[in-house]
Amino acid sequence: MNADTKQGQLQTVLLFIAALMFGFGALVQIADQRDQTETPVVYKSLQTPADIVHLTNPVEPVAYTSVVSLAKLPVADKKQRFIALLLPAILISKQHLQQQRERLAQLLSKSSLTTDEQAWLDQLKANYDTDSPAELRKRMIGLPNSLILAQAAIETGWGSSRFFVQANNVFGVWSFDPTEERIMASQLRDGKAVYVRRYGSLLGAIEDYFLTLGRGGAYAELRQAARHTQDSLELIQHLHRYSELGNDYVERLNAMIRHNRLKQYDSYQL
Prior knowledge:
Number of domains: 1
Radius of gyration: 24 Å
Largest sheet: 3 strands, antiparallel
Oligomer: single chain
CATH topology: Lysozyme
Mean pLDDT: 88
Low-confidence stretches: 2-6, 13-36
CATH architecture: Orthogonal Bundle
Strand order of the largest sheet: 3-5-4
Order of helices and strands: HEEHHHHHEEEHHHH
Strand content: 5-15%
Shape: globular
Structural class: mainly alpha
Number of strands: 5
CATH class: Mainly Alpha
């Protein structure tokens, strides 16, 4: 074998190795990108308040499948543990929402869709109760953590309500479908039994919350405002139709956010 032949074989081997290394590097890069957008969720059931994972920033992606009443804890401890319970679910849900928005934008830029892509798009439009892709994009809003925490604290009494403890129901969502998981309220309305939805986890309750605000005509002003600001004290002005209390509800949210300094949690991330 002459020197030219040996040199040619060596170059071939080196090119092959380089190609392998490039491919491996590309796979690592793809894996890194996937890890940045897909955070694995840990589902956890509570036995006592002590089981609540301590809140840090970044936040551990824990979705609690059952909770316990925080009513008997000292006030400061109760509030901190409640926030530690809810904030992970809020952040996971917001991440899911962002991923859906990104996929929606990608699909709407395509000239044609596969069967699976069309089915996904149709389901999303059904979830948000609209046939318009342009309107769908407007309905998929994100909200600041402080606003959601304030509503959750008011609706559950900082994790003390029966609906919260027995049904993972954070926002007192009613159920009118006898086929879904639900529990009966302790009081009648107009002489009739009423029910609230039971969720499989706090994450389910938060994701349904975003759907409710995205679907309802009562929250069109909120959705429009959320496209221009993520200041919770501005956005709560558009929640006067969320509760029967009207503007008093807005004032309660304002006091809740300010008094408990909830805006500090707006910068928290997974």
